[in-house]
Amino acid sequence: MSDSPRNAPWQPAEIVRIEPRTPRISSFFLRSALPRPLAGQHLDVRLTAPDGYQAQRSYSIASAPGAELAELLIEKLDDGEVSPYFHEVAQAGDTIEVRGPIGGHFVWRAADGGPLLLIAGGSGIAPLLAIVRERAATAPEVPALLVYSARTWDDLAWRDELFGAGADTGAFTAIALTTRGASPRPQDPARRLDGALLADLLARWGHPPRHVYACGSNVFVEAATSALVAQGLEPASIRTERYGGAG
Q: For the segment 14-53, what is each residue's pLDDT rounded down to a tens digit?
């Protein structure tokens, strides 16, 4: 397993390109000499100011493990310390410091199988996108349901890949939840995720999930996992990643 300890040395990473995904989320593609990650792992990122002040944050890797560049989805938080730099200052060609990949609990490999239930809130899509991509590349026969919640259709990152024409093919199904306005797809509920909606989505999907991965805000993840346990899923089958307000 590629699970770099927190005391691993920092390494330089070049920002190769930046691509906007939503009004507040952009993809930052990095080139570095870090080891190949597992789907679901993250990187630590460190910035150093001219006066020597340093700030660091952890960002999940959204790219597939075999990708040439590591893709980080970074949401701009107005009161954040690191994310405004990426959105307002960083440019292609800049160099930052990274270490990793880190994390062994939230990873998925083809050998783990499925069915897979993936639940994302907002920028919590990042590690689940890596799992979606790894599954498509190495085990497309594994049934997977992605439930991705955001405020509006425009706030859903990677819409074309996840919800565009041909996205729901084979064993992969993606459902968008929009809490402030409807999706253009009739199959997507315009409501918040709760136990009743989860039960309905799972019944329509028709696969008892063997592995569940949920990532998003503390409140979102707690609501989703509590609902799943109430419906009889084993807590041991549920893996979570949560983020707070720092950015």
A: 999 999 999 999 999 999 999 999 999 999 999 988 888 8
CB 183 within 8 A of CB 153: yes
| Whether 31 contacts 13, CB under 8 Å | yes
- CA 49 to chain centroid: 28
pTM strictly above 0.85: yes
CA distance 124 to 220: 10
What amino acid is encoded at 24 in this protein?
R
Q: Which residues, other chains included, contact 212 with Cβ-Cβ below 8 Å and sequence gap of 6+?
A: 116, 117, 118, 119, 225, 228, 233, 237, 238, 239
Element (H, E) at 135: helix 125-138
Amino acid at position 93, single letter:
G
Give the mean pLDDT of 118-125: 94
> How is the beta sheet containing 211-217 ordered, strand by strand?
172-178, 144-150, 116-121, 211-217, 238-243
End-to-end CA distance of the chain: 28
Pick the CATH number of 110-243 from 3.20.190.10, 3.90.1570.10, 1.10.1740.10, 3.40.50.80: 3.40.50.80
Q: Which helix (H) or strand (E) holds 126?
A: helix 125-138
Domain boundaries 11-102, corresponding CATH code: 2.40.30.10
* DSSP run (H or E) holding 14: strand 11-20
